[in-house]
Amino acid sequence: MVTQITLAHVADRLARRSPQRREDAGSIQAAVALVLAPGNSSRLELLLIKRAEHPGDPWSGQMALPGGRRDPADQDLLATVARETREEVGVALPPDRILGELDDLHPRTPLLPPVVVRPFVFGLGHRPPVHPSGEVALHVWVPLDELASGRTRTEIDVPGRDLRYPAYQVGAHLVWGMTERIITPFIELLK
Question: In the chain, how many domains are there?
Fold first, then answer.
């Protein structure tokens, strides 16, 4: 594993692969941002949000990456992720700060809406101020090397399901589900 993860290392690893795309007819298109920036100790950090509690939202109250559904006015999914990130946390994602894209993915359970999510990775030169909207309960910056160390890995039981799900323990918060399924392959790619 790399001792210190840098933006140059992330960009290099992302450039070596072609992301897998899913074109599921009838699925909602969405995009999320892995926003990376050096923290106070110069360690590269990832921005995570906790979604606000909203009735009818299947991801309500969960830890997530900024992003959301494509709007008909969005030119493409890059425009979607830039708009959604700006709306949710007030962070601008200039197109020239994109480091790459990860594989498209969708929920594994038919109980969730049919959505295909495209993750985009952005590298910022400094940690921007975050201004959460009403859609976001809180935000945290998590050092990538902590996620990569394995010390934050855990499993959780989800009520009503007979399975254990992989997760990250980030302070008092659990990161699991689609967000974990985006972060884990990304971390593996960096090793």
Answer: 1
